[in-house]
Design a protein that fits this description.
The protein has helices at residues 11-20, 23-32, 35-45, 52-72, 101-113, and strands at residues 48-50, 75-81, 86-93, 116-122, 125-132, 135-137. By secondary structure, the protein is an alpha+beta fold.
């Protein structure tokens, strides 16, 4: 019996879609007229508060992520940012492996407690960035 393989490369299709998109031109125009700076200044005027549940999620995930990267000799960096009003946890490793129940549970908890997760490459290492809202506006 032969192996069953499915493989598809969407790289060219993705590049064509992005080349035709005018979205970047629009974002550049907004940046040029100072929209994002004005928006930031207005948002900074709104009082913020720490959301206890989000703070708890951040602290819990930071501890669990620290234990996870310790196993593989990786690096972890957590930040609560009072200028951007957010909290992030970045894990840096040569690879990510979720191969047992404990590691898969961590992956599930990240999905349940975070607002988003991004994977990228930075300085030759894989980076998992976990974003947690942490703050809420007070109206």
């Amino acid at each position: 019996m032969e192996n069953v393989v499915y493989e598809k490369d969407y790289g060219e299709e993705f590049r064509e879609r992005n080349d035709k998109a005018k979205g970047q031109d629009f974002l550049d125009a907004l940046k040029d007229i100072g929209f994002f700076q004005a928006y930031k200044e207005e948002m900074d005027k709104i009082p913020k508060r720490v959301v206890p549940k989000e703070k708890e999620d951040y602290e819990y995930l930071l501890g669990e992520c620290d234990a996870y990267v310790r196993q593989f000799g990786g690096k972890v960096r957590g930040e609560v940012d009072y200028q951007k009003w957010q909290a992030t946890i970045d894990l840096y490793q040569t690879h990510f492996e979720f191969c047992d129940r404990e590691a898969l549970t961590l992956l599930k908890e990240i999905a349940e407690r975070a607002e988003n997760v991004t994977f990228s490459i930075k300085d030759g290492l894989l980076r998992m960035s976990i974003f947690i809202g942490y703050f809420d506006e007070v109206y």
